[in-house]
UniProtKB/TrEMBL annotation:
This is Methyltransferase. Keywords: Lipid biosynthesis, Lipid metabolism, Membrane, Methyltransferase, S-adenosyl-L-methionine, Steroid biosynthesis, Steroid metabolism, Sterol biosynthesis, Sterol metabolism, Transferase, Transmembrane, Transmembrane helix. GO terms for molecular function: sterol 24-C-methyltransferase activity. One of its GO terms (biological process) is embryo development ending in seed dormancy. It comes from Citrus clementina. The chain crosses the membrane at residues 33-50. The keyword Membrane applies.
Length: 395
């Protein structure tokens, strides 16, 4: 396929219609050749755009850095990396500067997430024969059903990303969902997608920190959080805020990122995997399932039930990140797809279509993928520690 396209481009080069002339020209005009390669890679990607997400290669390139000035992206990457263990960073510093660290992370990675994963930025347990996309939707419906959402209710999505789950849950349950997010770039993107999905009259976004929510007490009929409260510097502080804004007698459900009981804090390999996940995913620290449960109870919730859903998943949740796995429907996540994306980002950065530092972002995301897959394989980490909790009637 590649050689056919290369041959087509070759025909359009006016003078050098033989390989040695073309080769000599490559040496003289590397930028022109890189541009041609970029075009080829764009063509290569277009076939997958309709299947995976609305984001194409150019959206990815122009989106790197989010609201950060394009000339500042490289220095933002350097500052972000310095927060983390592999660059000498300390947990306390990450916690003290969580808002800056997490916002830098999402400004840098959001366009990569959307390009590779789609509009919902989370994992899911998966059945055999089910596509990644189907499993992601089912995971969202499960949350809506557990919360017992009813038509017309006011629901809060804590740490809503660009609103993939918010749109799905609002449409599935005919509810009005407010997406709370501290990242302005994601909110801008989410608003566009809400208009596109025609849920902009019933759903909205609020830019704020989930540690200090701008809502009165007892505002919502239900609250959920999908793989988001792991960014909180302190689980108790975050759950306490959720408790405050939830109406008495109503429910809070979440999927938490946690270290499992199999994690040994004295095991060097386990520690390395945890640090890779932290840098690759913008986390101040990863709490254990036990700590989350304790924090929930301490905040005043009654826990209805809780379970690590990874345990019973017929297919492992980390399958899309496993380099030995190939899938056409999630091609961009496979090792070939990642190879193509890596080189495409390199080329786009070289010709100036992607800001300097884009490749470094791709590098730490690759590290994250390795850490997540290793953590999943060793069963020391889960992105789907589920709980359903209620705020007592007289809480
Ligand atoms: C992994 S993404 C998950 C997004 C979304 N729940 C989904 O599944 O698509 C985590 C989200 O939490 C948000 N977030 C992190 N820290 C936050 C904070 N302190 N306040 C509000 N949102 C926060 C991020 O901006 C991001 O949108």
């Amino acid at each position: 396929m590649f050689s056919k396209k290369a041959a087509t481009v070759f025909l359009f080069l006016p003078k050098e219609r033989n390989f040695s002339a073309f080769h000599a020209n490559c040496e003289k005009q590397p930028r022109k050749i890189i541009l041609i390669l970029v075009l080829l890679l764009l063509l290569f990607q277009i076939g997958y755009i309709a299947r995976m997400s609305k984001a194409g290669a150019l959206d990815l390139a122009s989106g790197v850095g989010g609201k950060i000035d394009k000339t500042e992206v490289l220095s933002a990457v350097e500052k972000y990396e310095k927060y983390h263990v592999c660059y000498g960073g300390e947990e306390e510093e990450r916690k003290a500067n969580y808002a800056d660290m997490v916002n830098k992370y999402y400004d840098l990675v959001t366009s990569f997430y959307e390009f590779g994963w789609g509009e919902s930025f989370h994992f899911a347990p998966r059945w055999k024969g089910e596509s990644l996309r189907e499993s992601i939707k089912r995971h969202e419906h499960f949350l809506a059903l557990q919360l017992g959402l009813k038509s017309g209710q006011k629901v809060l999505d804590v740490g809503c990303g660009i609103g993939g789950p918010l749109r799905e849950i609002a449409q599935f349950s005919s509810t009005s969902v407010t997406g709370l997010n501290n990242n302005e770039y994601q909110i801008t993107r989410g608003k566009e997608l809400n208009r596109f999905a025609r849920v902009d009259k019933t759903c909205n976004f609020v830019k704020a920190d989930f540690m200090k929510m701008p809502f009165p007490d007892n505002s919502f009929d239900a609250v959920y959080a999908i793989e988001a409260t792991c960014h909180a510097p302190d689980a108790y502080g975050c759950y306490k805020e959720i408790y405050r804004v939830l109406k008495p007698g109503q429910y809070f459900a979440a999927y938490e990122w946690c270290m499992t009981d199999a994690f040994d804090p004295n095991n060097q390999e386990h520690k390395k995997i945890k640090a890779e996940i932290e840098i690759g995913d913008g986390l101040p620290d990863i709490r254990s399932t036990r700590k989350c449960l304790e924090a929930l109870k301490q905040a005043g919730f009654e826990v209805i039930w809780e379970k690590d859903l990874a345990v019973d998943s017929p297919l492992p949740w980390y399958l899309p990140l496993d380099t030995s796995h190939f899938s056409l429907s999630s091609f961009r996540l496979t090792s070939v797809g990642r190879f193509v994306t890596r080189n495409m980002v390199k080329a786009l950065e070289f010709v100036g279509l992607a800001p300097k530092g884009s490749q470094r972002v791709q590098d730490f995301l690759e590290k994250a993928a390795e850490g997540l897959a290793a953590g999943g394989r060793k069963e020391i980490f889960t992105p789907m520690y589920f709980f359903l909790a209620s705020k007592p009637q007289h809480g």
